[in-house]
Q: What sequence folds into this?
């Protein structure tokens, strides 16, 4: 087990390095710089700006300086907000995105698993079709369609919930979380239904029933565990999807999270911010996948041999 | 066969191992969290809670939608409108402006004398002006601040504004490094003398631009090199200013809060207790926030909502002329646009009236010149009209009758709904009237700016907002080789008027006559295609007072207060 | 058995025929198939079907709700929405099919090579896939589109580049398990080279999951394109794609709800159809998940 873990950790390092390098050179290839203003700037001003941000150095030198700083955990100053560093902005934005993702995942799990389990108990009946139909809607309706619709209904017509923001007005966390979680609720519903269907026909359940256990005990205590394993395996990739999904939701609801910072940075050509956020997010994803893999393998030793 | 979902190999997953109670625990935990989330939402039933705007009125706190998130608050390194709104509340310059007429009023300077030849200005500063940490404010603060603003290493994009001052340009470009040679002198702690190399009738207006605002030397120096733009002095808790408000809170991308500054010399006149600025890049969301009672004032209004408000709630929307022109620039060095007849044909075939009435919801004024009308009393000349027949004739004369043989070209604009709408419409108009094919090229802001600067365009969208209220701020764009002149336009007489003759003309009306001549010259060459002049539009709570409309959309914060009109 | 009996050997049913029969019974999947065929046909024939150009403006008219002249209404430029939705369909479906085809091509080739080669080559290739899997693709796509401008070709390639990984994994898994089977040994002993074996024997047998996954990838791709267009990074005006139409519809959804409803409905229904079809195919091709 340890060998496996170490191996996986070692594999993760080149991935992160690739991300850093790729992003660094990709963003430098972009036309336009971070300081272009509508008014023309004199060559002296331009030169001074570039010098301050080390942009006048040869590109390889910039790359290695960046790596050196990175080793200290210093992601550099942002281009767009002079006086603020990338680390700061990430620290500001991350908890919000994490909270959003967390609520979304919780909603997805609760709604999805319930729907999937309920549907699996009576396949091909209304009890199956209705939740699975809803799941399909969740999957097929893009978040930028669902979000505004929810805002229209609950925020404007009914006026029950605020239309934007996060943490500034009570209740403003609900709609964004639902919007983000809806798609994953759909997938999880399907996964759990499929998993449950597999499990429900198994013999050991017949044994449990033969023992005289009430049906709900059979389901909850015995079927659920096996049936939901696919859901657990899905959590790793789900994290990555959630992160990218949050970009859109944060934009729709004006949430000051990391996703929105990232999109703005991309549009503003804020090199250091883009680089820093990408590195950070990629590392997070890699770590999360790693943990998820390790957990899944620990629970199911057979997976360890995938790499033989 | 592997049962594959999303690439995850689940063959090995199906046989159930005795997994811990993990699933149930996860489920129970999630259900609980969900419940708490829902309950938190229930706490905010809109019937029960007081809307933010009402609370604001009660407490004297104004909530303003401010457009893009401010990049920074250092008056010498920023240059945007969102930043300007905040900086004018935190700092004060030599002069201030009357909120209605925009004529110059005393600021930190109580009075001033101007010499006969217009080359020397002497400012007498008030003795009771202080910094927010109670330090006295003296003429030396101005001298030091201006030196900082002009220091090349700081890279202040607005340093060119100081250039009328003797040797300022030389200092800012690094030719000389001794600031004592620059025409700024402190004769005693409360007297500041400015010497100009040529008369500049608009100079006083210039001194209310934030790049000329004073900054607190001790604070900045305590954070590092004053000409390092990356220090953290402009943050809550660090920033020391001399304006009516103090910076108390700034959560990036979330909100920025300023509160009344008791050290301000005129704080008795300041009636608001605080202002909160919200970043509102998305206009639709901003409008919803306003309707939801979260904002008193919005920076802009989505164009499709304008007629709705005008029809149903005219008291809530304010539309007024704005000191800006929207136009297309033409690369006069690139065929076929090097032929003035082609350029004129393009200009004459735009039905501006139709564009404004339909796509722009009747909001703006069609423009037939560069300078907006009403710029401190100036009226631009009208050199041409919408004339499709004449346009066709001109195009034919240039050798492209009916559009035959006219090379396809691109209309460049930066990514924005508005620019797209206009470009699409003009593309259609040119197609229908002249028979020429255009494609649309939209680029990110940065890329778009670069493309223009590198002259890699044929036709591009442009706009210009005036820095101060005087036609000169528009006209000096198009002097030969001007840094903002991306068209290649060059006319000796135009240069002469703008650079030499007009600044030396003391009488305003005579000066304006000269400017009309310059504009006529410009329109005869047509390196730019004027489209419309701006109107600013805002959604505004009727309870805001002291914020009259003016052509610069300028807010003089100390006069603003919240009081609802009697029903 | 006498030679006479040879004539009465019952005709076997191939995998495909069996699958088709089962698919036919799945009403939702068939409905999806029919819907898709219809939409695809309409979109292909659009230039000959429509009364208006997709760029054609009628500024005086502005945005009007559905009427006899304009069955699905017009937008603020007076452009006919039905036309724009159909053209948008061409764009969205094109992106969906082409990008998926790109993913298919790369993925199948890669996976087949890895699966057939086995051993260290397979290990190395799959290691690479794992590494790439970990990259935050959304981030890279955004970066790519921002850096290189919104080039349609780039869009196809970028999206295809994201989806091929899973395809490769599936194909490899299939090939790995098929490789052990006897018919492959037979082919080898017949003297067939690896390319022929892979191409003529292995891949056709692996097609089942590939088809299923392809059908399920198309909606993902279409969603991705819609998302990019929403962020301003995908298809550019005045061209239309469903994503773009939806994102402009959202801006004015209170005043002109039809500008949001129709494109939204079209996209959602198409995605439904593709997903139901994909599900149906999976059920039809995988005996284990058969409901009967």
A:
């Amino acid at each position: 087990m340890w060998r496996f873990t170490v191996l996986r950790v070692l594999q993760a390092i080149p991935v992160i390095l690739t991300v850093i390098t790729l992003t660094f050179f990709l963003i430098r290839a972009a036309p336009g710089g971070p300081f272009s203003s509508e008014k023309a700037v004199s060559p002296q001003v331009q030169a001074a700006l570039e010098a301050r941000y080390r942009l006048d150095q040869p590109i390889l030198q910039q790359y290695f300086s960046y790596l050196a700083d990175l080793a200290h955990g210093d992601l550099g100053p942002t281009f767009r907000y002079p006086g603020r560093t990338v680390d700061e902005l990430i620290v500001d934005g991350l908890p919000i995105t994490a909270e959003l993702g967390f609520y979304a995942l919780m909603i997805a799990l609760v709604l999805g698993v319930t729907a999937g389990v309920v549907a699996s108990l009576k396949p091909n009946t209304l009890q199956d079709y209705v939740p699975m139909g809803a799941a399909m809607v969740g999957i097929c309706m893009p978040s930028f369609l669902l979000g505004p619709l929810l805002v229209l209904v609950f925020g404007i017509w009914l006026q029950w919930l605020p239309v934007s923001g996060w943490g500034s007005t009570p209740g403003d966390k609900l709609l964004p979380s639902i919007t983000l979680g809806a798609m994953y609720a759909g997938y999880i519903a399907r996964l759990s239904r499929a998993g449950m269907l597999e499990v429900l026909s198994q013999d050991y359940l017949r044994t449990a029933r033969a023992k005289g256990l009430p049906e709900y005990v059979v389901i909850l205590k015995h079927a659920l565990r096996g049936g939901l394993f696919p859901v657990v395996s899905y959590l790793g990739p789900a994290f990555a999807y959630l992160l990218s999904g949050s970009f859109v939701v944060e934009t729709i609801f004006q949430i000051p999270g990391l996703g929105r910072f990232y999109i703005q940075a991309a549009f503003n050509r804020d090199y250091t911010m883009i680089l820093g956020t990408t590195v950070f997010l990629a590392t997070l994803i890699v770590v999360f996948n790693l943990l998820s893999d390790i957990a899944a393998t620990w629970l199911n030793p057979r997976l360890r041999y995938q790499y033989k | 066969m592997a049962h594959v979902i999303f690439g995850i190999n689940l063959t090995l997953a199906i046989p159930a191992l005795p997994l811990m109670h993990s699933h149930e625990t996860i489920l129970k935990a999630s259900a609980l969290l969900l419940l708490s989330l829902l309950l938190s939402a229930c706490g905010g039933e809109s019937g029960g809670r007081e809307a933010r705007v009402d609370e604001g009125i009660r407490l004297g706190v104004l909530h303003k939608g401010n457009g893009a998130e401010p990049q920074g608050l250092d008056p010498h390194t920023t240059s945007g409108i969102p930043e300007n709104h905040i900086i004018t509340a935190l700092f004060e310059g030599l002069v201030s402006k009357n909120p209605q007429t925009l004529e110059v009023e005393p600021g930190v300077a109580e009075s001033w004398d101007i010499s006969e030849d217009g080359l020397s200005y002497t400012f007498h500063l008030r003795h009771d002006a202080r910094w927010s940490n109670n330090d006295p404010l003296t003429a030396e603060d101005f001298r030091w601040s201006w030196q900082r603003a002009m220091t090349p290493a700081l890279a202040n994009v607005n340093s060119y504004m100081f250039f009328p001052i003797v040797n300022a340009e030389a200092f800012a470009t690094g030719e000389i490094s001794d600031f004592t040679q620059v025409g700024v002198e402190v004769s005693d702690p409360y007297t500041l003398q400015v010497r100009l190399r040529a008369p500049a009738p608009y100079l006083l207006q210039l001194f209310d631009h934030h790049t000329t605002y004073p900054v607190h030397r001790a604070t900045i120096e305590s954070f590092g090199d004053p000409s390092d733009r990356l220090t953290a002095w402009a943050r809550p808790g660090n920033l020391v200013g001399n304006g009516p408000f103090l910076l108390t809170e700034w959560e990036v991308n979330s909100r920025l809060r300023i509160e009344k500054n008791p050290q301000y010399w005129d704080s008795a006149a300041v009636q608001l207790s605080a202002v909160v600025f919200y970043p509102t890049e998305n206009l639709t969301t901003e409008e919803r926030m306003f309707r939801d009672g979260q904002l008193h004032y919005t920076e802009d209004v989505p164009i499709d909502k304008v007629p709705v408000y005008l029809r149903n709630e005219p008291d809530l929307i304010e539309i007024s002329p704005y000191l800006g022109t929207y136009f297309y620039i033409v690369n006069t060095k690139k065929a076929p646009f090097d032929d003035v007849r082609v350029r004129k044909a393009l200009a004459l075939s735009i039905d501006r009236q139709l564009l404004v009435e339909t796509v722009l919801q009747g909001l703006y004024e069609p423009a037939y010149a560069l300078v907006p009308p009403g710029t401190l009393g100036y009226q631009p000349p009208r050199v041409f009209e919408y004339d499709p027949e004449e346009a066709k004739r001109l195009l034919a004369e240039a050798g492209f009758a009916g559009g035959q043989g006219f090379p396809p070209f691109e209309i460049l604009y930066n990514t924005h709904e508005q620019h797209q709408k206009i470009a699409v419409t003009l593309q259609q108009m040119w197609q229908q009237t002249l028979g020429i094919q255009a494609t649309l090229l939209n680029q990110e802001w940065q890329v778009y700016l670069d493309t223009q600067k590198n002259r890699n365009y044929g036709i591009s969208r442009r706009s210009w907002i005036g820095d101060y209220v005087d036609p000169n701020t528009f006209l000096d764009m198009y002097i030969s080789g001007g840094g903002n002149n991306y068209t290649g336009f060059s006319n000796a007489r135009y240069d002469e008027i703008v650079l030499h003759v007009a600044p030396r003309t003391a009488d305003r009306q005579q000066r304006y006559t000269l400017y009309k001549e310059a504009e006529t010259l410009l329109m005869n060459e047509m390196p730019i295609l004027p489209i419309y002049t701006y109107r600013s539009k805002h959604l505004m709570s009727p309870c805001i007072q002291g914020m009259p409309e003016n052509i610069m959309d300028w807010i003089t914060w100390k006069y603003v207060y919240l009081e609802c009109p009697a029903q | 058995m006498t030679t006479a009996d040879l004539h009465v050997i019952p005709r076997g049913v191939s995998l495909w025929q069996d699958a088709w029969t089962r698919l036919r019974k799945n009403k939702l999947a068939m409905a999806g198939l029919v819907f898709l065929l219809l939409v695809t046909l309409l979109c292909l024939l659009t230039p000959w079907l429509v009364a208006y150009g997709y760029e054609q403006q009628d500024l005086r008219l502005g945005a009007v709700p559905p009427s006899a002249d304009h069955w699905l209404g017009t937008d603020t430029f007076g452009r006919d929405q039905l036309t724009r939705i159909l053209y948008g369909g061409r764009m969205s479906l094109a992106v969906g099919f082409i990008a998926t085809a790109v993913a298919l091509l790369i993925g199948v080739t890669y996976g087949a090579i890895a699966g057939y080669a086995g051993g260290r080559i397979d290990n190395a290739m799959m290691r690479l896939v794992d590494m790439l899997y970990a990259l935050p693709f959304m981030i890279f796509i955004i970066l790519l589109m921002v850096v290189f401008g919104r080039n349609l070709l780039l869009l196809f390639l970028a999206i295809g580049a994201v989806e091929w990984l899973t395809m490769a994994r599936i194909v490899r898994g299939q090939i790995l398990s098929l490789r052990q089977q006897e018919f492959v040994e037979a082919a080898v002993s017949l003297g067939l080279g690896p390319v022929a074996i892979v191409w003529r024997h292995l891949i056709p047998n692996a097609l089942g999951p590939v088809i299923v996954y392809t059908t399920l990838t198309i909606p993902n791709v279409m969603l991705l394109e819609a998302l990019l267009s929403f962020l301003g990074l995908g298809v550019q005006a005045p061209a239309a794609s469903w994503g773009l139409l939806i994102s402009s519809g959202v801006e004015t959804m209170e005043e002109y709800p039809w500008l949001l409803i129709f494109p939204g409905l079209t996209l959602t229904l198409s995605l439904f159809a593709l997903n139901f079809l994909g599900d149906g195919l999976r059920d039809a091709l995988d005996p284990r998940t058969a409901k009967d």
